[in-house]
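Page 47, continued from p. 46.
Same chain as before, 114 aa.
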Amino acid sequence: MKNISTRFIPAFCVAFTLGLAPSAAQTTGAMVPVQTPPATAPVAKPAGTLSKAAEFSTLAEASAHCPTSTVVWSTLSKSHSFHASGSRYFGKTKHGAYVCKDDALAAGFHQAKS
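Result:
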């Protein structure tokens, strides 16, 4: 009996992995509903990110883009903060851009503390 089980189990495992062995639903006659994967939603822009179209390298470009909003300097880092025009960091951080304050707030940015 030992010889039969040692020969049967590896052969059954190979047949099962290749899809040649009958499944439990096929042997019992039970109907198993086929589940389709859920539809994937379009990938949304993650919260806390500004679009490249809303980032400007000069104050003049940003002012022309948002005449009704205040222009701020966004740090574009994981801190998600921006600096107002009176701040000592306005236009001075290494990774940043001029953006409209409304766009920054809509993207989840907050005003820096100092």
